[in-house]
Amino acid sequence: MSILGADIRRLVADFPVTSEQDRAVQEDFASFFSRDDGPVQRGDGPRHATASAFVFDPTLSRVLLVFHGKGRFWVQPGGHLEPEDHSVADAALRELSEETGIVAPPPGDEYVYDLDHHELSAAFGRCASHLDVGVALIVAGEGGLRLSDESEDVRWWPIDALPDEVPPQFHRRVAHVLTLLRR
């Protein structure tokens, strides 16, 4: 088993289930990652893992979002796992740096995260769905934001005034991560 496969299996097994919806998400992820590495990388099939970073300011009143060119929506920075990633958190930090210019420290062994399996439009090519593990981070400061080739804009948004153009279930995901962070 690969390091990334083992990390995803651990995260799925340890996912904090607080509702029936959480249990359903955990069971869905377990169906992909319970017996072997599962679809860890893009080449493992049209349904595969991704890592993302829910980045909040220290007051937990703003979240950093990028406007995704293919999806045509605002979303947390993230993307595919790469062979050089040593963990899902490592992949989320790499994607955050690539897509926004922010270099954040690793979140430590115990961190808040979210699981979300979402279908994708034809704009994503052969990717049919992503099994996303969203890692929560708190970052001070606003300086140094930059765009990547995949994004058209990057900015901080107030939690209570998120943009209209977000993926389905995005508001729920942000609220869930914030609830876990505030514990």
Describe it.
With 183 residues, this protein is an alpha+beta fold. The chain has one domain (3-182): Alpha-Beta Complex (Nucleoside Triphosphate Pyrophosphohydrolase). The protein is built from 4 helices and 7 strands; from the N terminus they run ααββββαβββα. Strands 1, 2, 3, 4, 5, 6 and 7 form a 7-stranded mixed sheet that branches. α1 runs antiparallel to α2 (20-33). The longest helix has 14 residues, at 20-33. 34% of the residues are buried.
Biggest sheet descriptor: 7 strands, mixed
Fraction of residues in H or I helices: 25-40%
The overall average pLDDT, rounded, is 89
The tally of helices reads 4
Structural class by sheet pairing and helices: alpha+beta
What is the percentage of strand-forming residues? 25-35%
- Shape field: globular
What name does the CATH topology carry?
Nucleoside Triphosphate Pyrophosphohydrolase
- What is the subunit organization of this protein? single chain
- Highest CATH level, the class: Alpha Beta
The rounded distance between the terminal residues' Cα atoms is 33 Å
Q: Give start-end ranges of low-pLDDT stretches.
A: none
> What CATH architecture would you give?
Alpha-Beta Complex
Total domain count: 1
The CATH superfamily appears as: Nucleoside Triphosphate Pyrophosphohydrolase
Element-level helix/strand string? HHEEEEHEEEH
Radius of gyration: 15 Å
Beta strands, count: 7
Keywords:
globular, 28% helix, 7-stranded mixed beta sheet, alpha+beta, single chain, 26% strand, 183 residues, Nucleoside Triphosphate Pyrophosphohydrolase
